[in-house]
Amino acid sequence: MASAELQGRPADPFTERTPRVVFASKLHRAAARRKAGRFLAEGPNQVEAAVSAGAALEVFVTAEALDRHASLLGGVSHAGIPLSVVTDRGMASLSATVTPPGLVALCRSVVRDGASSRDAADAPDGAGAESAAEPLRIVAIGQALAEPGNVGTLIRAADALGADEVWFTADSADPEGAKAVRASAGSLFHVPVVRGIPVDEVAERARSRGLALLVATGDGEVDITSADGAELLREPSAWVFGNEAHGVPAELRDAADARVRIPLRGRAESLNIATAAAICLHSSAAAHPAAG
Amino acid sequence: MASAELQGRPADPFTERTPRVVFASKLHRAAARRKAGRFLAEGPNQVEAAVSAGAALEVFVTAEALDRHASLLGGVSHAGIPLSVVTDRGMASLSATVTPPGLVALCRSVVRDGASSRDAADAPDGAGAESAAEPLRIVAIGQALAEPGNVGTLIRAADALGADEVWFTADSADPEGAKAVRASAGSLFHVPVVRGIPVDEVAERARSRGLALLVATGDGEVDITSADGAELLREPSAWVFGNEAHGVPAELRDAADARVRIPLRGRAESLNIATAAAICLHSSAAAHPAAG
Q: A107, A42 in Cβ contact below 8 A?
């Protein structure tokens, strides 16, 4: 096989550089994902979630993983999804991990594009334009989240705690990048996610969907555990969680209906995104007992 | 300098392998940290927290970082803490990051040893034996947490949300390892942390400190948002957060006073540790308004 590769000969199904593998391996880059409307989901849990959601178009697997995950992959095959066996080196080009679990699903994009309407004509197939659907009760918004792990964790927490949608501003890490997909633990396939929303359109977009805009911030004027906080949480609302280092910019803070703080009791200066989002979304969910 | 190193000559302060650097670089290994009762805290925020807490014994810095963090390092020097300038290569041997921030504090251990009393005689200097101090209201317990990031995140959340102590069982990642220290964002120096507690002593230890033992688990019989949950949270309590993959073992679940679930509303199967701990500790803190 090594000599076939060195000579650049056409690849057989057990050789690493089939045209499909070459195509899929380019999806590590955000620009390629956007252009193709495709992304990769790696490992048995992600692949299973992608297949269940009807998002998997093809599954790549090593011979070893084929053995190890026979039952899962039997289901993939049964669902009529093409299953391609690749070499360890082929898998290495598809994997974003140091020790690849040996299976990767090529998926159609499941994230909607939230760009201004004037840009919507550029949306690739599969990434449908946003539709103004049923009324929303709780939305989580990631504003300029730089860490893909935080993007995925926000999606996972929002799904688990009953948020209706998750929105990301244009300068957040891509929710369909490898680390974000992994951190979402399958929730990317469960909860509606919108990316690419211009930051100066966030407030208007929330209001047009009937949502109060709440910014989570350490110096907010409303204590989330106070009576005022409880009152606020009974409204349908969109929570903004800001950039890890810089927080929410002044324009968006000012445009919000309220800035809400979680009381800090120790000497820690702040909570990380995952902790703050968990508390805010759980508090909102508890105030909407009809939810879910 | 390169030739001095190649020839193994005694190092000057600007050469990478001074005896102090050699000693400190060994602290990347947990066994060396335990034996020496020392650990490393890297980056300006951690170094500042270590110095403020009186835990820093020496600070290593590159010439470049000396310039960049002049004000912080002036304070270090003013506090009478030895400041040693090292080369980039010397810093690389001390750093646990891909792009070293250029300063590392050698710290005395701040974590207490929670091993059985029969093992306590082995405790190194600085890592004092546990003392039964003032009454506790809220304790967070990490049981067999494998991810150092989760260990540090639990410490950070516990500190911010007003927990009195954080305990770790013997099979958890070391809270004084580099990734855990970084994830704790300084809170390791603020909140009392105990490590190395035998898992079969957790329940007894909680009761002897007057704490109800609560296990956070998806299938718990008590809903944290219910009236029963609210009643439970008014008691002084210790929350157990279990291993990322396997959860809390049956013996410890059975030994607990209650198993508590966070209602999941979406299709996510579980919450990650950071999310679950944030919600449980925030709920406990809100039920103890006198706290902090």
A: no
What domains, with CATH codes, occur in chain A? 2-108 (3.30.1330.30), 123-287 (3.40.1280.10)
Number of residues that this document lists for chain A = 292
The predicted structure's pLDDT at residue A268: 77
Strand order in the sheet with B38-42: B38-42, B103-108, B56-62, B83-86
Q: How far lies B33's CA from each of A172, B47, B79, B112, B142, in Å?
A: 38, 17, 24, 13, 20
Contacting residues of A for B262, CB less than 8 Å apart: 282
Identify the residue among A138, A161, A224 best suited for mutation to test binding to B, counting B beta carbons within 10 A and taking the highest.
Answer: A161
Written as six digits, the tokens of B148 are 């150092």
Say yes or no: A225 contacts chain B, CB-CB below 8 A.
yes
Report residue B29: phi and psi, to 5°: -95, 135
pTM of the model: 0.83
Beta-carbon contacts of B22 under 8 Å, excluding residues fewer than 6 positions away, are none
Rounded Cα–Cα distance for residues B252 and B248 (Å):
7
A239-281 pLDDT, tens digit each: 999 999 999 999 999 999 999 999 988 777 788 898 999 999 9
Among the partner-chain residues B267, B274, B279, the one whose CB lies closest to the CB of A159 is B267
Q: Sort out which chain B residues have CB atoms less than 8 A from A139's CB and list them.
A: none
Q: What is the ipTM of this complex?
A: 0.78
Asked if A266 and B159 come within 8 Å (Cβ–Cβ), the reply is yes
- Give the dihedral of Cα atoms A170, A171, A173, A176; nearest 10 deg: 20
Burial class (CB in 10 A: 0-12, 13-18, 19+), B8: exposed
B141 and B212 Cβ atoms separated by less than 8 Å: no
Three-class SS of B148-170: HHHHHHHHHHHHHCCCCEEEEEC
A286 touches chain B (CB under 8 A): yes
Residue type, B38: R
The overall average pLDDT reported for chain B is: 88
Q: Are residues B268 and A163, on separate chains, in Cβ contact within 8 Å?
A: no
Chain B contact probe: residue of A272, A280, A281, A284 with most B CBs at under 10 A: A272
Q: Given CB atoms, is A44 within the 8 Å cutoff of chain B? A: no
Amino acid at B8: G
Q: Strand B138-142 and strand B111-113: pairing? A: unpaired
Shortest CA distance to B144 belongs to which of B218, B216, B242?
Answer: B242
B109 and chain A in contact, CB less than 8 A: no
Rounded to 5°, the CA angle B258-B261-B262 comes to 145
CB–CB of A285 and B263 under 8 A?
Answer: yes
Note whether B262 contacts A: Cβ–Cβ < 8 A. Answer: yes
For B5, phi then psi, to 5°, come to -65, -45
CA distance B282 to B274: 12
- How much is the mean pLDDT over chain A? 88
- Of residues B38, B83, B8, the one with CA closest to residue B17: B8
- What's the CA gap between A146 and A143, in Å, rounded? 9
Alpha carbon distance A22, A16 (integer Å): 9
